[in-house]
């Protein structure tokens, strides 16, 4: 698979998983640490619009704000720092993540909206967990009044307002539930 080049001022779906689909987050503390490193390495280089961390993979929706080489290096620093800490904690060696993080450039606002919902519904899709209560996605952050480095205003504006943001997520969630009941 040819990797998409990152370009400044464009939106990207960034994702990766553990090598051989293994666990990359063994605990909530691991997820908290990953988010702390993400902020350390990437907060000044990208705008973040959505994220979700599951036990064996993650998704992030970003807009590249700095030069692409800086952003790629920042992701590399994040993954290396996290892998070293995780390997030490878990008494393991070797690669933690699949070789290269995947990235898909978004080409229109409709896809951007669908991706925000997809990322937030990941706990339901993969774990059969309620996406609204899942701690390690940006959904709760977006609906809260807390200050955050997440670009909440832009995300909410995509859906016109907060009520429509919540409605479209719940509506899509119910559609998924119905689909899985029929299969």
From TrEMBL:
Domain of life of the source: Bacteria
Domain spans labelled Transposase IS200-like: 7-122
Protein name: Transposase IS200-like domain-containing protein
Source organism of the structure: Autumnicola edwardsiae
Lineage of origin: Bacteria, Pseudomonadati, Bacteroidota, Flavobacteriia, Flavobacteriales
């Amino acid at each position: 698979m040819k990797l998409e080049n990152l370009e400044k001022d464009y939106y990207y779906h960034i994702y990766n998983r553990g090598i051989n689909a293994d666990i990359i987050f063994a605990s909530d503390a691991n997820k908290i640490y990953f988010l702390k490193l993400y902020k350390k390495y990437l907060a000044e280089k990208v705008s973040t619009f959505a994220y979700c961390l599951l036990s064996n993979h993650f998704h992030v929706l970003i807009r590249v704000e700095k030069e692409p080489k800086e952003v790629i290096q920042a992701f590399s620093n994040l993954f290396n720092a996290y892998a070293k800490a995780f390997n030490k904690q878990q008494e393991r060696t070797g690669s933690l993540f699949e070789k290269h993080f995947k990235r898909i450039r978004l080409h229109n606002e409709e896809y951007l909206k669908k991706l925000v919902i997809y990322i937030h519904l990941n706990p339901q899709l993969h774990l059969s967990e309620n996406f609204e209560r899942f701690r390690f996605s940006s959904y709760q952050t977006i609906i809260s009044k807390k200050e955050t480095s997440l670009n909440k205003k832009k995300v909410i504006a995509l859906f016109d307002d907060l009520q429509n943001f919540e409605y479209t997520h719940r509506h899509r969630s119910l559609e998924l539930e119905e689909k899985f009941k029929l299969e």
